[in-house]
Amino acid sequence: MPFPIKAVRACYPALNDGYAYLDGAAGTQTPRSVIDAISDAYRGGIGNVGGAFPASHRSDAIVAACRAAVADLVGGDPRGVILGPNMTTLTYRLSRAVAGPGDEVVVSRLDHDANVRPWTQTGATVRWAEVDPVTGELPVEQYASLVNERTRVVAVTAASNIIGTRPDVAAIAGIAHRAGALMYVDGVHATAHGPVDMRALGADFYATSAYKWSGPHVGAVVADPALLETLRPDKLASSPDTVPERFELGTAAFADLEGVTAAVDHLAAMVPGTGNRRERLLASMAAAEEHELELFGVLIEGLETLPGVTVYGKPARRTATAYFNVAGRTPREVAEHLARLRVNVWNGHNYAWELTGSMGIRDTGGAVRAGLAPYNDRSDVDRLLNGIAQLT
């Protein structure tokens, strides 16, 4: 059946302002069910966890439900879901517990800096996987010479946040695991654009952020709880030593965690389906991916046919994310022109620090990024292309 785009769009109050929200790669809009869930959590009364009174019990239940929801979304174990303010904070926290001097880590030029700098700053020896700056591909073969018995972690993205490249994470994981190394997979961009199975990817750690898939600003890293038991992060002496709580510093934003669960439920319900939540998520996200890629075909073809437009990256497998420049205009000028037409896009390096450096555009303002989300429709794409055509 066709993707029910009108019904999906009707779930998002922000879309009523008349803008084309093509900035989803930086953060999506929020459906009414998520807004209501957060509001209802506050209205119902919440307290810190572990208390003897009902408001505390409600927070206990919110945390447990959130872990279960995130686990369903990525195919993980609820007992291994670490929750925190964002992926960057959690990755810094985990990197210190996983790697250090005497170890080796492998990072890639394709990745968002949040899956690069935390590892390069651990004191471990750093090895770099290079990206093809023209195609945007991350060749798997190079990992055979980068990974050895001293490698502690291989950190790689499941999808580039600016050009959408989906590298062969499972093949890279095979190389890493044969050497006894751990796989830390940045799924922040990928999770929003299709079904995820972290076990099939070979991810020992899978990181994601709810605000990229219609939720609030909450991050999560999912791992096997048995693996987490072997790690000893820095923590307060008085805070819990259980897994996954030992990795969660400070008090959680409990109402936002309620919003995360609502966001997962929203994703599972975008298309009619049966089965448990995990099964419905797989079907719904596959339908959303098909919808996005169909629109993206129109978007990318339109950009490539406009004179003076340079599109970066031509990966074989990708998310619906375009990164481009317009001759004679800075990326910021293009973004400002589109904003006047009520079209939202991003400009700059978008934290793809190494990739934009490899492309030779980081120091000249990067490029313009337009990314599709499940709630985008053909009119959004047409408005972007018409706006760019005015400049060319």
TrEMBL record:
Keyword Lyase: no
Keyword NADP appears in the UniProt entry: no
Enzyme class: transferase
Pfam families referenced in this protein's UniProt entry, alphabetically: Aminotran_5 (PF00266)
Residue ranges annotated for the Aminotransferase class V domain, each copy included: 21-384
An MF annotation (GO) of this entry: cysteine desulfurase activity
Top-level division of the source organism's lineage: Bacteria
Record key words, sorted: Transferase
EC identifiers of the protein: 2.8.1.7
Identification of the protein by name: Cysteine desulfurase
Gene name of this polypeptide: csd1
